[in-house]
Amino acid sequence: MEVIQPFTLAPWEARLQVILNSQGEEEEDKIKELAKAGWAVRIATSSSARNDLVGMGGTVRIPISLARAGKIIETFSVTLGTTEEHNPYTAELAAIARGLKYLPEMKYRIIMILTSNRSAAQAIGNPRQQSGQGHIREIYDAIEKLKGDINRVRLIWLPSDSELKIQRIAKMSARHATEPYVTPRRGTSKAKTTILSRTRANLRRERELPDGVGRYSRKVDSALPGKHTRLLYDQLPWKEASVLAQLRTGMARLNGYLYQIGAAVTDECPCGQAKETVEHFLFRCVKWMAQRKEMMLQCVEEKCGNVSFHLGGKAASDGQKWTPNMEAVRATIRFAIATGRLEQR
């Protein structure tokens, strides 16, 4: 995996001027004419991500007066690896670095690099502490050598809908590198940002509750799984934590759940008015009206009777800055303990 350094270039090193095609139709035509110039050395690059592969491709066109052995076109296509380790941005940088290596020795020439990847173009024009540093450093080393021989280098970004023929050839080469039958090249530097993003996504998936598991808990707390559960339980003595766990999971010593697992002959509440669920027990059972008074004093009017609020869960209506109200949670626990209903019978 690549190592990202604090900076790519020293502050005093000159940056490559990047021409971005975003200055109106007239300016666009001028840029295209410049990019088509047959007297210039032209490098067109492209990247591709499909079939779970990332590849790069490019083509180099050299004026006849400069060509070695009459060869004026060089084309390359390289499969870098899987989408779990690489991305089109770093692939584009790798393609530009590779294209520059194909150039013969030359003097007093203009070299134009054509790309349709805006992110790569901007990264080369203004390198920062970012992924792809190694390729950017290679690009600048090659450019420095070319400038030492009195050559001028220009990097031109053209959007995909304005691509020239030479860019379309580069795109075909890149797509060839991501055909299903190709084998990734070994030893290529893996993009750190892509690997980290993939790892984070996998960790998030691992922390998710499987479908069908904890359905009631997710109804009570839409933020599950989350770090707030440690805040809820770590501050409580064992007995209080046990009561809260019963109420938050629905697996409580109430007839509604006990009947479901065959531990009670009926799911009816002792009050005789409804099924004994957590909600009925907390808010509606007439047997516990006296014990319920303190709990109801801890909630604002719009939260009264909201099971998520009373049990430290996040309701669908709560915003991003939501945190559990521990005073309300403790009052709910005290109510449940005062009834004695959740104690082992």
**What is the count of DSSP helices, taking H or I runs of 4+ residues?**
14
Assign an overall shape. rod-shaped
Q: Can you name the CATH architecture of the largest domain?
A: 2-Layer Sandwich
Task: Quote the CATH topology of the largest domain.
Answer: Nucleotidyltransferase, domain 5
Biggest sheet, spatial arrangement of strands: 1-6-5-2-3-4
Global mean pLDDT: 83
At the fourth level of CATH, the homologous superfamily of the largest domain is Ribonuclease H-like superfamily/Ribonuclease H
Return Rg in Å. Answer: 33 Å
| Tally of distinct domains | 2
Alpha-beta classification: alpha/beta
Largest sheet features: 6 strands, mixed
Terminus-to-terminus distance: 59 Å
Which key features would you list for this structure?
345 residues, Nucleotidyltransferase, domain 5, six-stranded mixed β-sheet, alpha/beta
Produce a short descriptive summary:
This protein has 345 residues and is α/β, with parallel strands linked by helices. It has 14 helices and 6 strands.
Tell me what the structure shows.
- The chain is an alpha/beta fold and 345 residues long.
- It has 2 domains: 18-199, 2-Layer Sandwich (Nucleotidyltransferase, domain 5); 215-339, no CATH class.
- 41% of the residues lie in helices and 13% in strands.
- The protein is built from 14 helices and 6 strands.
- The chain has a 6-stranded mixed beta sheet, with helices on both faces.
- Strand 2 (41-50) and strand 3 (53-61) form a beta hairpin.
- The longest helix is centred in the middle third of the chain and has 16 residues, at 133-148.
- The chain is rod-shaped.
- InterPro entries: RNaseH-like_sf, RNaseH_sf.
